Amino acid sequence: MTVSVGIDKIGFYTPSLYLDMAELATARGEDPNKYLIGIGQSKQAVIPPTQDIVTMAANAASQILTPALKAEVAMVLFGTESGIDNSKASAVYLAHLLGLSPKTRAIEVKQACYGATAGLQLAADYVRVHPQAKVLVIGADVARYGLRTAGEVTQGGGAVAMLVTADPQILTLDMVSSYHTEDVMDFWRPTYRTEALVDGKYSTNVYLDFFKTVWADYQQQTNRTIVDFDAFVFHLPFTKMGRKGLRQILPEAQPDQQKSLKAAFEASQEDNRNVGNLYTGSLYLSLLSLLRHGQLTAGARLGFFSYGSGAEGEFFSGILQPNYQRGFDGAALTTLLAQRKRVSVAEYEDIYRAQLSNDSRDVQLPVGEEVAQYYLAGRQNQQRQYREQ
Ligand code: CAA
């Protein structure tokens, strides 16, 4: 008998600062509605130098790992575009910070915004073969395009942590999925750069084309059609992108279903609208947002479109489980988002420039205002100094 495998728990972390998108629009000489409606973003996470992908991942993972679970994690698969080292995996730093058992396998997975999906599917296959195993999958990034660039409004950052197990509480993954790879230069980041290079309009077109391709292939493989779905969850670099994706397939549904799919989309974009782009974590923040704000019942089939520039697309699906509400702490997430401090555009620009420099100097970061459990205190002897409070 095949074991049912999928997402048992989800944790999420984003730093304690945000920038208001209407304020940014005004500062950049744009109509605020371009950002609020045209792009579909209201707030953007601002990442202080004291947070990086490792600390954000630790802050997300610590929400879902009890001491007993920490001892049981067989593997850590860390999806990220914002790696902090060209050799050593962020998963190794993370495993140490969290106090995981040394009997764990810890690696980093890279393919732009697709890394966490690769991690999730590899984890699911591993658990199908080893049903007792628990795998920690991370999607953590700092989405960084540059001050006064077209991509600036689509920045953000944070981490999603998922525990993949047999008989999961939140979602069982269907075994079938459809994926597609093409060598496309829509978004990339050479190792000498801290900001992505992007052909913005082209990237949005490739996203939509890839969605069309994998959705058609998935339907062919499964004989399922849109009527078999209760909601679609999209990679959301900005919320308008997923809205365009959904619009592409809505005509395949009857009017009643169109209404419910649109309502589910509104729920799925709510939290992303207030955090911004997490690159590889965005799809899974959108899932969390749907679970928090949507009206789904157990047994619902959800469709997922994952996209990572460069480019890789995947469509996969899963079934919502009866106790899905127990798999995440919705109240903690509401508090995390509500307690963030708004920074002005000038403060955001200062913080943007204050990131840990790309050189070998020793640095002590201003950690006095840091409220997160895990943070970065600086760099000594070319080693990042991670701390827990
Ligand atoms: N009121 C309402 N809407 C307005 C408006 C106003 N006053 N002014 C403009 N708009 C609308 C425009 O009509 C447009 O809507 P449509 O796309 O529906 O036509 C929207 O606002 C955006 O306007 P522009 O196209 O003029 O915006 P832009 O040229 O400044 O750039 C962008 C938009 C290309 C997305 C840019 O922000 C960018 O390059 N972002 C980074 C790349 C990106 O996120 N790509 C997504 C796919 S790649 C991916 O998914 C991987 C990843 O995470 C990086």
General shape: globular
The helix content, as a percent range, equals 25-40%
| Total count of helical runs of at least 4 residues | 12
Amino-to-carboxy terminus distance:
46 Å
Give the biggest beta sheet.
Answer: 9 strands, mixed
**Arithmetic mean pLDDT:** 97
Given as residue ranges, the uncertain stretches (5+ residues, pLDDT < 50) are none
Quaternary structure state of the chains depicted: single chain
Strand order of the largest sheet: 5-4-6-7-1-8-13-12-11
Structural class: alpha+beta
CATH topology of the largest domain: Peroxisomal Thiolase, Chain A, domain 1
GO molecular function: hydroxymethylglutaryl-CoA synthase activity
Pfam families: HMG_CoA_synt_C (PF08540), HMG_CoA_synt_N (PF01154)
EC number: 2.3.3.10
Domain Hydroxymethylglutaryl-coenzyme A synthase N-terminal: 4-166
Structure notes:
This protein is of the alpha+beta class and 389 residues long. It has two domains: 5-170 and 328-388, Peroxisomal Thiolase, Chain A, domain 1 (3-Layer(aba) Sandwich), CATH 3.40.47; 173-324, Thiolase/Chalcone synthase (Peroxisomal Thiolase, Chain A, domain 1), CATH 3.40.47.10. It is 35% helix and 27% strand. It contains twelve helices and 17 strands. The protein has helices spanning 21-27, 32-39, 53-61, 67-72, 90-98, 115-129, 200-222, 239-249, 255-273, 282-293, 330-338, 345-353; strands spanning 5-13, 17-20, 43-46, 73-79, 105-109, 134-143, 156-166, 171-181, 187-188, 197-198, 231-234, 301-308, 312-320, 341-343, 363-364, 374-380, 383-388. The strands form four sheets. Strands 5-4-6-7-1-8-13-12-11 form a nine-stranded mixed β-sheet, sandwiched between helices. Strand 16 and strand 17 (383-388) form a beta hairpin. Helix 7 (200-222) packs across helix 8, helix 8 (239-249) packs antiparallel against helix 9 (255-273) and helix 9 (255-273) crosses helix 10. The longest helix has 23 residues, at 200-222. The model has no long low-confidence stretch (mean pLDDT 97). The structure holds acetoacetyl-coenzyme A.
